[in-house]
Amino acid sequence: MSQPMYQPMSPPLSGKTALVTGGSRGIGRSIATRLAREGATVALTCNASRRGAEETVAAVERSGGSAFALHADLVDAKSIPDLFEQADREFLRRTGSDALDLLINNAGNAGWGGLMDATPDSWDEMFAVHARAPFFLVQSALSRLADGGRVVNISSALPPPAARASMPAPPASRRPGPTGVLGSAGRATPEGPGSGTA
Protein backbone atom coordinates (compact mmCIF):
# COMPACT_ATOMS: atom_id res chain seq x y z
CA MET A 1 0.00 0.00 0.00
CA SER A 2 1.56 3.27 -1.08
CA GLN A 3 1.79 6.15 1.31
CA PRO A 4 -0.12 9.34 0.34
CA MET A 5 2.19 12.07 -0.86
CA TYR A 6 1.82 15.44 0.77
CA GLN A 7 3.26 18.58 -0.67
CA PRO A 8 4.29 21.25 1.80
CA MET A 9 1.91 24.19 1.83
CA SER A 10 3.17 27.57 0.69
CA PRO A 11 3.26 30.22 3.39
CA PRO A 12 -0.10 32.05 3.48
CA LEU A 13 1.37 35.37 2.30
CA SER A 14 3.66 33.94 -0.36
CA GLY A 15 3.83 36.34 -3.30
CA LYS A 16 2.34 39.22 -1.28
CA THR A 17 4.01 42.54 -0.47
CA ALA A 18 3.77 44.69 2.64
CA LEU A 19 4.90 48.15 3.69
CA VAL A 20 5.27 48.56 7.46
CA THR A 21 6.01 52.05 8.72
CA GLY A 22 8.04 52.19 11.91
CA GLY A 23 9.14 48.61 11.29
CA SER A 24 12.58 48.92 12.87
CA ARG A 25 11.57 48.34 16.49
CA GLY A 26 8.76 47.45 18.87
CA ILE A 27 5.38 46.46 17.47
CA GLY A 28 6.41 47.41 13.94
CA ARG A 29 9.39 45.09 14.04
CA SER A 30 7.22 42.24 15.31
CA ILE A 31 4.70 42.85 12.54
CA ALA A 32 7.39 43.03 9.84
CA THR A 33 9.08 39.81 10.94
CA ARG A 34 5.76 37.97 11.24
CA LEU A 35 4.62 39.06 7.77
CA ALA A 36 7.96 37.95 6.31
CA ARG A 37 7.72 34.61 8.14
CA GLU A 38 4.28 34.17 6.55
CA GLY A 39 5.87 34.65 3.12
CA ALA A 40 5.41 38.37 2.32
CA THR A 41 8.14 40.55 0.88
CA VAL A 42 8.32 43.34 3.44
CA ALA A 43 9.41 46.95 3.10
CA LEU A 44 9.90 48.57 6.48
CA THR A 45 10.53 52.21 7.19
CA CYS A 46 12.69 53.84 9.79
CA ASN A 47 13.75 57.34 10.66
CA ALA A 48 16.06 57.60 13.68
CA SER A 49 16.43 53.84 14.17
CA ARG A 50 18.39 52.85 11.06
CA ARG A 51 20.44 50.31 12.99
CA GLY A 52 17.23 48.71 14.25
CA ALA A 53 15.96 48.52 10.68
CA GLU A 54 19.17 46.84 9.51
CA GLU A 55 18.90 44.34 12.39
CA THR A 56 15.29 43.59 11.51
CA VAL A 57 16.12 42.99 7.84
CA ALA A 58 19.04 40.75 8.84
CA ALA A 59 16.83 38.72 11.19
CA VAL A 60 14.20 38.27 8.47
CA GLU A 61 16.80 37.17 5.93
CA ARG A 62 18.43 34.75 8.38
CA SER A 63 15.07 33.02 8.76
CA GLY A 64 14.65 32.76 4.99
CA GLY A 65 12.34 35.75 4.48
CA SER A 66 12.62 38.82 2.28
CA ALA A 67 12.72 42.37 3.63
CA PHE A 68 14.33 45.71 2.93
CA ALA A 69 14.52 49.01 4.79
CA LEU A 70 13.69 52.50 3.54
CA HIS A 71 14.42 55.75 5.31
CA ALA A 72 11.31 57.87 5.86
CA ASP A 73 10.91 61.05 7.88
CA LEU A 74 7.13 61.01 8.16
CA VAL A 75 7.04 64.48 9.72
CA ASP A 76 7.46 65.66 6.13
CA ALA A 77 4.38 64.45 4.22
CA LYS A 78 5.94 65.69 0.98
CA SER A 79 8.48 62.85 1.24
CA ILE A 80 5.79 60.15 1.07
CA PRO A 81 5.46 59.94 -2.76
CA ASP A 82 9.23 59.41 -2.99
CA LEU A 83 9.02 56.69 -0.32
CA PHE A 84 6.47 54.83 -2.46
CA GLU A 85 8.54 55.25 -5.61
CA GLN A 86 11.51 53.65 -3.81
CA ALA A 87 9.27 50.82 -2.57
CA ASP A 88 7.83 50.35 -6.08
CA ARG A 89 11.28 49.89 -7.58
CA GLU A 90 12.40 47.42 -4.95
CA PHE A 91 9.18 45.39 -5.00
CA LEU A 92 9.41 45.22 -8.81
CA ARG A 93 13.01 44.04 -8.60
CA ARG A 94 12.25 41.41 -5.95
CA THR A 95 8.80 40.15 -7.00
CA GLY A 96 8.27 41.26 -10.59
CA SER A 97 5.38 43.53 -9.57
CA ASP A 98 5.08 46.90 -7.86
CA ALA A 99 1.61 46.12 -6.47
CA LEU A 100 1.15 46.51 -2.72
CA ASP A 101 -0.95 44.04 -0.74
CA LEU A 102 -0.63 45.41 2.80
CA LEU A 103 0.02 48.88 4.17
CA ILE A 104 0.60 48.85 7.92
CA ASN A 105 0.62 52.39 9.33
CA ASN A 106 2.47 51.84 12.58
CA ALA A 107 5.06 54.63 12.84
CA GLY A 108 4.85 56.88 15.87
CA ASN A 109 6.86 59.17 18.07
CA ALA A 110 6.71 60.12 21.72
CA GLY A 111 6.24 63.82 21.00
CA TRP A 112 7.49 65.05 24.36
CA GLY A 113 8.50 63.75 27.76
CA GLY A 114 5.68 65.17 29.86
CA LEU A 115 2.71 67.47 29.53
CA MET A 116 4.64 70.47 30.87
CA ASP A 117 7.38 69.85 28.28
CA ALA A 118 5.04 70.13 25.28
CA THR A 119 5.64 72.94 22.81
CA PRO A 120 3.74 73.96 19.67
CA ASP A 121 6.56 72.45 17.59
CA SER A 122 6.52 69.11 19.43
CA TRP A 123 2.72 69.02 19.15
CA ASP A 124 2.93 69.66 15.39
CA GLU A 125 5.55 66.96 14.98
CA MET A 126 3.52 64.39 16.92
CA PHE A 127 0.36 65.22 14.96
CA ALA A 128 2.28 65.05 11.67
CA VAL A 129 3.47 61.49 12.36
CA HIS A 130 0.34 60.10 14.02
CA ALA A 131 -2.40 61.70 11.90
CA ARG A 132 -1.18 63.49 8.79
CA ALA A 133 1.34 60.85 7.64
CA PRO A 134 -1.12 57.91 7.74
CA PHE A 135 -3.61 59.96 5.71
CA PHE A 136 -1.09 60.67 2.95
CA LEU A 137 0.37 57.15 3.11
CA VAL A 138 -3.09 55.77 2.38
CA GLN A 139 -3.53 58.33 -0.40
CA SER A 140 -0.30 57.17 -2.07
CA ALA A 141 -1.11 53.50 -1.50
CA LEU A 142 -4.56 53.57 -3.10
CA SER A 143 -3.35 53.43 -6.70
CA ARG A 144 -0.93 50.63 -5.81
CA LEU A 145 -3.13 48.33 -3.74
CA ALA A 146 -3.69 44.94 -5.32
CA ASP A 147 -7.17 43.43 -5.48
CA GLY A 148 -7.98 42.38 -1.93
CA GLY A 149 -5.26 44.69 -0.56
CA ARG A 150 -5.56 45.93 2.99
CA VAL A 151 -4.65 49.02 5.02
CA VAL A 152 -4.14 48.61 8.76
CA ASN A 153 -3.78 51.68 10.99
CA ILE A 154 -2.24 51.08 14.40
CA SER A 155 -2.20 53.51 17.29
CA SER A 156 -1.28 53.42 20.92
CA ALA A 157 -3.90 54.24 23.53
CA LEU A 158 -1.33 55.13 26.17
CA PRO A 159 1.30 57.87 26.20
CA PRO A 160 4.94 56.92 26.83
CA PRO A 161 5.98 56.19 30.45
CA ALA A 162 7.67 59.58 30.95
CA ALA A 163 4.48 61.40 29.92
CA ARG A 164 2.29 59.17 32.08
CA ALA A 165 4.47 59.92 35.11
CA SER A 166 3.66 63.63 34.89
CA MET A 167 -0.10 63.16 34.54
CA PRO A 168 -2.53 63.09 37.44
CA ALA A 169 -4.17 59.71 38.04
CA PRO A 170 -7.63 59.45 36.45
CA PRO A 171 -10.64 58.53 38.57
CA ALA A 172 -11.04 54.79 39.13
CA SER A 173 -13.93 54.63 36.67
CA ARG A 174 -11.71 55.93 33.84
CA ARG A 175 -8.50 54.00 34.43
CA PRO A 176 -7.20 51.76 31.65
CA GLY A 177 -8.15 48.13 31.96
CA PRO A 178 -5.79 45.21 31.35
CA THR A 179 -5.80 45.86 27.60
CA GLY A 180 -5.04 49.58 27.94
CA VAL A 181 -8.57 50.50 26.86
CA LEU A 182 -10.33 53.08 28.96
CA GLY A 183 -13.29 51.71 30.84
CA SER A 184 -16.39 53.57 31.93
CA ALA A 185 -18.59 53.25 34.96
CA GLY A 186 -21.61 54.42 32.96
CA ARG A 187 -24.28 52.09 31.64
CA ALA A 188 -25.05 51.47 27.98
CA THR A 189 -27.65 53.86 26.56
CA PRO A 190 -29.04 54.53 23.09
CA GLU A 191 -26.34 57.22 22.77
CA GLY A 192 -23.62 54.61 23.29
CA PRO A 193 -21.91 52.83 26.17
CA GLY A 194 -21.06 55.01 29.11
CA SER A 195 -22.59 58.14 27.64
CA GLY A 196 -23.10 60.94 30.08
CA THR A 197 -20.26 59.85 32.33
CA ALA A 198 -17.14 61.88 32.97
Task: Choose one word for the global shape.
Answer: globular
Which CATH class of the largest domain applies here? Alpha Beta
CATH architecture field of the largest domain: 3-Layer(aba) Sandwich
Which segments are poorly predicted (pLDDT under 50) over 5 or more consecutive residues? Answer: 174-198
Number of strands: 7
Rg from C-alpha positions?
21 Å
Structural class based on helices, strands and sheet pairing: alpha/beta
Name of the CATH superfamily of the largest domain: NAD(P)-binding Rossmann-like Domain
**What is the fold named in CATH at topology level of the largest domain?**
Rossmann fold
End-to-end Cα distance, whole Å, is: 72 Å
Note the main sheet: 5 strands, parallel
- Average pLDDT confidence is 82
With strands numbered from the N-terminus, the spatial order across the biggest sheet is 3-2-1-4-5
- Total domain modules: 2
Residues in helix, %? 25-40%
Spell the H/E element sequence.
Answer: EHEHEHEHEHEE
Q: Please count the helical segments.
A: 5
Strand % is 15-25%
Protein name: SDR family NAD(P)-dependent oxidoreductase
Family: Belongs to the short-chain dehydrogenases/reductases (SDR) family.
Region (Disordered): 158-198
Biased composition (Pro residues): 158-173
Fold and architecture overview:
- There is one protein chain.
- This protein has 198 residues and is of the alpha/beta class.
- The chain folds into two domains: 17-167, NAD(P)-binding Rossmann-like Domain (Rossmann fold); 171-198, no CATH class.
- The protein has five helices and seven strands, in the order βαβαβαβαβαββ.
- The strands form two sheets. A five-stranded parallel sheet has the order 3-2-1-4-5, with helices on both faces.
- Helix 4 links the parallel strand 4 and strand 5 (145-153).
- Helix 1 (26-37) runs parallel beside helix 2 (50-62).
- The longest helix is centred in the middle third of the chain and has 23 residues, at 120-142.
- It is globular, with a radius of gyration of 21 Å.
